[in-house]
């Protein structure tokens, strides 16, 4: 590659104002793009190693506050102001409207049911029988495998190993708890050490690939709907008939009928989520709080459940079986993301379950608001009024 087309880098101190400026100047020369706004930021580049390479500046995303929202969780308790980073008009207003309804109905109850993070190596043998026998050996030596894996981490714990045979391959799925970290890199390192020990100690011949793709990293899968990846968290509420009518101008019987239709449509489409739009709230919260944005793919999948009660009230819940959030590590410590986590009192250790409960409650608020907007006939009019870019 010609030197004039080589991105400027400094192998000794690349995360600095000086080298960010050099790269912006290089890009202006190469493309003609004016990077005036990208180059204005308040953070110190020295905090960015481990988060970004070839740093040039910051893309500024508007952040709005929805709420407050009343949550009755095991970890999140009280009223929360929820930061949402988005460029979609009406989104913050819609979530705030849903939160108001939930508050007037007594608040949202949230529960973290279980939590795991996976790495899924594939072990290859000469034939299916050898692969089957290897699986039995793994079961018999689980405690030794666990001990080896946990030498690489202070907080990661190997809880169990799932197994499947396909042809002459044995797929393993190592399931860990990872504390307040999302843990993908943590479990990758731990599983590598465990696999090396397995190859050394197993009496037969085998080879392996560290990821056989059954961990479904950054991909939606039905496996995660049944066997949780990240946190399985549930948010639920009983919506009072009269309050729904007053705030949303919607009858709960009509809401129940529309939800059945929506469930059928989602089933026909093969959608990963049968509710209105879980990804909107999750993505906006993820960006604001420094989560790995690619994890929205896994985290948005779930099940919206409902029941029209005898008195006309409406039970509604959202189950997110693979919500991947962290309050420590990754992008959570960057200055603006840390501030958004501090708004929620969710920065640092011991806060990941609390954040998960807030995310699930936020999804529920957004779903009920959009569903009622569609039924009530003010979905399009709201976007016309608030969602236009008027530049």
From TrEMBL:
Domain of life, source organism: Bacteria
Entry-linked InterPro entries: HMG_CoA_Rdtase, HMG_CoA_Rdtase_cat_sf, HMG_CoA_Rdtase_eu_arc, HMG_CoA_Rdtase_NAD(P)-bd_sf, HMG_CoA_Rdtase_sub-bd_dom_sf
One Pfam family cited in the UniProt record for this chain: HMG-CoA_red
Enzyme class at the top of the EC tree: oxidoreductase
Alphabetized UniProt keyword annotations: NADP, Oxidoreductase
Family recorded in the similarity comment: Belongs to the HMG-CoA reductase family.
Protein's name according to its UniProt entry: hydroxymethylglutaryl-CoA reductase (NADPH)
Species of the source: Paraglaciecola psychrophila 170
């Amino acid at each position: 590659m010609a030197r004039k087309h080589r991105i400027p880098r400094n192998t000794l101190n690349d995360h600095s104002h000086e080298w960010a400026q050099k790269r912006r100047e290089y890009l202006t020369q190469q493309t003609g793009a004016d990077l005036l706004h990208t180059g204005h930021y308040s953070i110190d580049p020295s905090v960015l190693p481990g988060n970004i390479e070839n740093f040039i500046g910051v893309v500024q995303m508007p952040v709005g506050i929805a709420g407050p929202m009343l949550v009755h969780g095991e970890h999140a308790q009280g009223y929360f102001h929820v930061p949402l980073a988005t460029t979609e008009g009406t989104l913050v207003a819609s979530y705030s409207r849903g939160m108001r309804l939930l508050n007037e109905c007594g608040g949202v109850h949230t529960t973290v049911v279980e939590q795991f993070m996976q790495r899924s190596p594939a072990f290859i043998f000469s034939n299916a029988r050898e692969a089957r026998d290897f699986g039995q050996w793994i079961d018999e030596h689980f405690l030794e495998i666990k001990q080896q894996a946990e030498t690489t981490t202070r907080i990661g714990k190997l809880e169990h190993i799932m197994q499947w045979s396909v042809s002459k391959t044995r797929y393993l799925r190592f399931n860990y708890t990872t504390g307040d970290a999302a843990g993908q890199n943590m479990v990758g390192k731990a599983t590598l050490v465990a696999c090396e020990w397995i190859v050394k100690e197993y009496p037969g011949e085998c080879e392996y690939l560290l990821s056989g793709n059954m961990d479904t990293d950054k991909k939606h899968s039905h496996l995660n709907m049944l066997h949780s990846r990240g946190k399985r968290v549930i948010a639920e509420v009983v919506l009072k008939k009269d309050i729904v009518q007053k705030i949303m101008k919607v009858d709960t019987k009509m809401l129940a009928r529309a939800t059945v239709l929506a469930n059928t449509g989602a089933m026909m489409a093969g959608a990963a989520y049968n509710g209105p739009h879980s990804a909107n709230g999750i993505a906006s919260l993820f960006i604001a709080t420094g989560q790995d944005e690619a994890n929205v793919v896994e985290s948005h999948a779930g099940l919206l459940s409902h029941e029209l009660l005898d008195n006309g009230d409406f039970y509604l819940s959202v189950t997110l079986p693979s919500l991947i959030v962290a309050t420590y590590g990754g992008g959570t410590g960057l200055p603006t993301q840390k501030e958004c986590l501090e708004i929620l009192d969710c920065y640092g250790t011991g806060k990941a379950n609390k954040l998960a409960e807030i995310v699930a409650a936020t999804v529920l608020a957004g779903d009920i608001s959009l569903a009622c907007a569609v039924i009530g006939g003010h979905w399009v009019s709201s976007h016309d009024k608030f969602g236009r870019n008027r530049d």
